[in-house]
Structures are given as structure tokens and as C-alpha cells.
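Technical note accompanying the year-one report. For the benefit of new consortium partners, we illustrate the data format agreed upon in the data management plan: each record pairs a sequence with a C-alpha cell string. No post-processing was applied to the example shown here.
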Amino acid sequence: MLPSPPFMRRIHNYIRGRILQIIDWFYPWFKQIMPLQTFRYAACGGFNTLTDITLFFVAYNYIFLKKPVHTPIILISAPIASFLFSFTVTFPVGFYLSRYVVFQQTEAKKTVQLRKYFMVVMGCLFLNYIFLKLFIEMFHWYPTPAKIATTVFVVAFSYLSQKHYTFRAVSSVD
């Protein structure tokens, strides 16, 4: 039997409240250098990025054992397989944090935001793929440092896209 919606709403409100409480506790130290929304994005994005890099490292070294993954259709390199593995966790976590912690002022429907978020994430996937291929295969970097460098570019793109496209405040034009 599935839990009732009010029960799930209470869990959601509790989790969201605790996350905001923790993040906002640190904000006074950064108040002079950035607005609250930017700080929340940095905190949530930093957490999600750390999760992404950790999962990438674990998958690359201990799940895929640095070896390509053979599928019936294509051969996937270990770094790309590791990236895809970490993506399955960080995509839903990132959407949740963005919608309910960072960009709360938006009034757009969740399904519209999810579609926009997915489009931006597809752009991030493309950038991840291109930069990982470039850094690992062209520049011969180790995969984990390549993933960290890639993340710098992707985070900048993601923040600007999420703020000005996915979670922008709804106007009369929408």
C-alpha cells in the first residue's frame, strides 16, 4: 500500500525545511558577497556536484573497473559509463534541490519546469561528453581530474540556464 499524499507532503516539507535550515545557517558569512538565492544554488549545486564526482569515481574505479562496457548495441567507454551512472542519481536530486530549495519563487507548473530542466540537463550531458572526450582522449588527462575540470564549465552553463530559463519567475508573457 502506498503512503497517503499528506504523509508524503509532510516528508517533503520536513526534508526541504531541514535543507534550508542547514544552508541558511551558513549564509550570514557570505551575505556580503552574494545574494541568498546564489548562495543556495552554490550550496545545493556544490552538494550535487560532489555527489556526482564521488559517484563517478566509485563507478569508474570499482563498478566498471576502468574497462569499457559492452552492450548489444554499442561499446561505452568506462568514463562515459561512469558519467551516465552518476547522472541517474544527480538528475532527480538536482531537480528537487533547484525547484524546492533554490528557485522557490517560480509559479510554473512542475511538469513544465521538469521539461525545461531536462532540456538544460541534455545540454549539460552534451557538454560533459564533449569535455570528457577532449580532456581524456585528446589531452590524455586522468578521468577524475578531467571530470572535475569538465564540471567547472558545465556548472557555469547550468546556473545561467536554470536561473534565466528553467526556474525564472513567471511573467505575464509565459
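Partners are asked to follow this layout when depositing records. The two ends are 39 Å apart (CA to CA).
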